[in-house]
C-alpha cells in the first residue's frame, strides 16, 4: 500500500540495534506495523497580526488579515515528518477543519513533507468538541495510531482539542511535549509542566500535543512546494463523518481588553527606584 | 448548584492558583474540593481549611500519585453526576485533565475564564488577550479552567470542611509516570509572587541572569523570562511568561531586555505596575510600561542592585 523511501533498516529488530542508536529510531519489524500519523492543522490569524475587535462586538476583524498555519501545528507536522524519515511512520496525513481556504494550510503541511491531506469543509464555527469528534471519526477510518496536535490554537487559546480527542478514543495523552521517543509499542514523552519537565510513558496508540521546544519546523523548499501541488486532498463535510458540529458555546459579545496607559520614561536608575518607592509604592 | 474544584497541591500544601479557582467557584454556589494523589491526607486537611469549601473529597490511591490525566479524568467523571460545574485552575495539570473530562461528559470546555457572569456565562481571553469574549454554554455540565491571575485567591485558613473518601473509579493503565526534572528554587513561584523580574534575549546568556539575582533577592521576587530566553537555553521552560507560558499579574513586573511581543504582553499586561529596561527606546514594551528606562541592562542592573541595597 505504501513504500517509505528510507526503508533501509526495515529488517532490523529493535533489540538488534547497536547501542549507538539507542536514542534514535527503532525501526519496526515489518511494514505492517509502521503507523499512520494524523496531524490536525488549523488555519489561524498569523501570530504577527495584532487583531482588532469589530466595532459591533461580534468578534475580531479577520477580513484582509494574514492567515497562517497555527505555529504549534507546524511543530506537529515537523515531528510527524521526522518520524516518517526515521522509519517509524508509514504515512503522514494532514487534516484541517474549516472554510475552503484551509486547503492552503494543508498545502503548507504537504510542502513540509506530509503525504496527503483531508479537508473537512464547514463555513460554520467549529469548536474543539466538534473538532475532536470529527478527528475521532477520521482516526478510525484511517486506522491512525498516533495523532500529533498543537498544544493550543493561538486564536481561541483553548488548549483542549488534543486532550478531548484522546478521551473520545480512550487513548493516553502526552500534552505539551518537548521530546518524543517511540520504541516498540510505547512512546516516551517529555512534557513541559509548571515546575519544569516531566517524563511519561504511553502505550500506543496515543495522542501528543506539541510545545514550543519540541523541534524547529523546517521551511518548505521550492521543489517541495511544487511537489505538494500533486499530492491529494480529500474533501468532506461534517455530516459525512456523522458529527453535528453545532457550537456549544455562543459568543454573547467580544470586547477590547482594558487598555493600559503608556507611562513615562525615567532618566536614571536612581529616579526609577525613587518612583517605585515613593510614587507607585510597590517596593 | 455545586461546583467541584480539582486541587493542585504539593507536599501537603494547596497551590495558590487553586485558591483562585475556589474564589471563582464560590461565585457560582457551593464549593467542594477534590484532592487526589497518593498519601495526600495532609493536602486534604489543608483543603478543608480553605474558606468557602464545604466538603473535601479525598481520592488517596497509588493510581493518582503523579496526576496522570487518564485516571484523574476517570475519577472526575465518576464524581460528575453530583455537580453542575467541574473546575480547576489553568495550570499545566488543569489544562491536561479538564478537557479530557469535558469530552467524556460531551461538554465543550470553557478554558481560562477571567470572570464569571452567571452560571452559564463566562468571560475568557482570546487571541493572546487582545480580545475578551463573553461566552454562554448550553452544556448541562460546565467544565472550566480558571485564570488564576484574574481572581484573588481565598485565604489558606478559616474554613472547616468535612473530608469524605472518593468512590473507587477505574484507572486506565495506558500511561505511566517515569520521572520529573523540576527547577529548584528558593524564590516564590511565578504565579504567586508579588514581584516578578523577567529577562529576555537581551540578557545574552544564562550566566548573565545572575545579574538579576541580587535584585530578585532584595525584592523577594520570582524570576521569569521571555520565550526567546527559554528557547536560547538561558533558563528552563517553566520560567516562560506569556500567551503560551505562565500568566502573571504581580504588583510589580520588571521586564529586562524584552522587546514586548504580543505573546509576551499576553502573560504580564495585567500586572499592577510595569517597569521596562531596554536599550531600544522604540521597543513596544514601553507602550505598556508605567516606568521605562532606556539603558544598557549591563550598566543598569548592577546600578539597580546597588540602589536597592542602599534602601
Ligand atoms: C506560537 C508562539 C507562542 C509564543 N509564546 C510566547 C510566550 O508565551 N512568551 C513570550 O515571551 N514569547 C512568546 N512567543 C515569542 C514572541 O513572539 C517573541 O519572539 C519573544 O517574546 C521575544 O523575546 P524577547 O523580547 O526576549 O526577544 P527580542 O524580541 O529579540 O527582544 C530583545 C530585546 O532586548 C533588548 N536588548 C538587547 N540588548 C540589550 C541590552 N544590552 N540592554 C538593554 N536591552 C537590550 C533589545 O532592544 C530588544 O528589545 C511566542 C511566539 C509564537 C509564535
Ligand atoms: N479547525 C481545526 N482544524 C485542524 N486542527 C485543529 C482545529 N481546531 C483545533 N485543531 C488542533 O487542535 C490543536 C489545539 O487547538 P485548541 O484546542 O483549539 O487550542 C491545534 O493546534 C490543532 O492541532
Primary descriptors:
heterodimer, A: 283 residues, alpha/beta, Rossmann fold, 9-stranded mixed β-sheet, two-stranded antiparallel ribbon, 6 helices, 28% strand, globular, disordered N terminus, B: 311 residues, 7-stranded parallel β-sheet, 5-stranded parallel β-sheet, 18 strands, elongated, binds flavin-adenine dinucleotide, binds adenosine monophosphate
Would you give an account of this structure?
The complex is a heterodimer of chains A (283) and B (311). By secondary structure, chain A is α/β, with parallel strands linked by helices. In chain A, 24% of the residues lie in helices and 28% in strands. Chain A is built from 6 helices and 13 strands. In chain A, helix 2 crosses helix 5 (222-230) and helix 3 crosses helix 4 (161-169). The longest helix of chain A is centred in the first third of the chain and has 15 residues, at 71-85. With 311 residues, chain B is an alpha/beta fold. Chain B contains 8 helices and 18 strands. In chain B, helix 3 (69-79) crosses helix 4 and helix 5 (213-219) runs parallel beside helix 8 (297-310). At the A-B interface, helix 3, helix 4, strand 7, strand 8 and strand 9 of A face helix 3, helix 4, strand 7, strand 9 and strand 10 of B. Bound molecules: flavin-adenine dinucleotide and adenosine monophosphate. Adenosine monophosphate binds next to helix 1, strand 4, helix 3, strand 6 and helix 4 of chain A.
Draw up the topology in text:
The complex is a heterodimer of chains A (283) and B (311).
Chain A: E1 35-40, E2 43-45, E3 67-69, H1 71-85, E4 89-98, H2 102-112, E5 116-121, H3 128-142, E6 146-150, H4 161-169, E7 173-183, E8 186-193, E9 196-203, E10 206-210, H5 222-230, E11 233-236, E12 249-255, E13 264-266, H6 269-278
Parallel strand pairs in A: 1-4, 1-6, 4-5, 5-11, 6-10, 7-10
Antiparallel strand pairs in A: 2-3, 7-8, 8-9
Chain B: E1 2-6, E2 9-10, E3 13-14, H1 16-26, E4 30-37, H2 41-48, E5 53-60, H3 69-79, E6 85-89, H4 92-104, E7 110-113, E8 115-116, E9 121-126, E10 131-137, E11 142-146, E12 162-165, E13 175-182, E14 195-199, H5 213-219, E15 222-225, H6 227-231, E16 252-256, H7 262-268, E17 273-278, E18 291-294, H8 297-310
Parallel strand pairs in B: 1-4, 1-6, 4-5, 5-12, 6-11, 7-11, 14-15, 14-16, 16-17, 17-18
Antiparallel strand pairs in B: 2-3, 8-9, 9-10
